Amino acid sequence: MTRIRPASVDAATAAEAHPTPGLLSDFILGSQDGLVNVLGILLGLASAGEGRTVILIATIAALAAETISMAAVAYTSTRARRQFYLAEERRERWEMDHLPDAERQEVREILDRWEFQGEEREKLLDQIVAKPKAMLDLMMAFELHIAPVAEDQPRKSALVVGLATVVGSVLPILPFLITANVLTAAIAAVVLAAGMLFAIGWYEARTTVGSLWRAGLRMLVIGLAAGFAGFLVGVLINAVR
């Protein structure tokens, strides 16, 4: 998700200059989803008593399917956000051309929220209205509260999410490639998954705001809880068959 930065009137320029938030959310989405999905499958199969070969086939198949699916979803959802932004931008341009008094009042209300008053507000209002590009960007960001999406962003999001999904999915599979002991591999997979989940949360807090340890632990708990659901399903299936 791209953030709107109040310090900049030109929201498009701000988004291009600071792409990190969107890429960060894409990376977290892909890596966490891939890791949790594969971890849940392998724990479920392991607790159901399946062997190493079955677990590897199932998890590698899940990796392939999940990677394609997540990349496709990232592309289509980001493209939809861009199409929505462009549609709202066209509507806002029409209103600026055909309803100038109403649009001027909306800018005035934004300035009111920023505590501009009296002559100072009206002078700034005249300057903004005289610059259609600045006025349009202001209205998109602070009236409609939507951020621009670059033309190449859907492709970038699909690439980042897809690669992150592969990275997240591969990690819990690695122990099963090294040892034939399913129990040992499953324990190692949980440890590796916990480490990666904590690292993702830690990095998120480091690049944004918040406690590094709290963010890491929160990501760890959320991810392992989802993976543990697969373990419980496997135990249940093993008990009833």
Labels describing this entry:
0% strand, disordered N terminus, elongated, 241 residues, mainly alpha
Secondary-structure map:
Blueprint: H1 11-17, H2 20-47, H3 52-98, H4 100-113, H5 118-129, H6 132-142, H7 153-178, H8 182-207, H9 212-240
Walkthrough of the structure:
With 241 residues, the protein is mainly alpha-helical. It has helices at residues 11-17, 20-47, 52-98, 100-113, 118-129, 132-142, 153-178, 182-207, 212-240.
Strand fraction band?
under 5%
Shape: elongated
**Overall domain count:** 1
- Rg is 24 Å
Helicity range = over 70%
Please report the number of helical segments. Answer: 9
Q: Would you report the number of β strands?
A: 0
> What is the residue-averaged pLDDT?
86
In short:
It is built from nine helices and no strands. It is an all-alpha fold. The protein has one domain.
